[in-house]
Amino acid sequence: MKVMVLVKANEDTEAGVLPTEQEFAEMGKFNEELVKAGVMLAGEGLHPTSKGVRLRYSDEGTTVTDGPFAETKELIAGFWILDVKSREEAVEWLKRAPFQNTEIEIRQVFEAEDFGEAFTPELRAAEDRMRKQVEEQHGR
Question: Residue 121: which domain range?
């Protein structure tokens, strides 16, 4: 199963405070363990919301709002996408992450079989074609 691990923002990440050399080294070591175990599919840190933009969709149209955004506790500072056997395995991995004074959230990623009959064979085939095209465009 695939999960997305959301690393919550805090005052430091929103202020653009970058990790120290030691923090980079610790995170690099943790990421290397994830890669060696074959569970890491992707992982990135995000710039603060002051460099971001939000789009809100409604019946009246789309509203575009430039960052920064309030309520740091609801903001994301980074993420991983992991391929694990269970939610418990994801939790065990993330217990080892070198974080202090932050919060993460683990969410399961939908797979094709989760969508039932509404995701028809034709729609699945179209999705597969699109994924292959993206992989070819980005050399993966």
Answer: 114-140
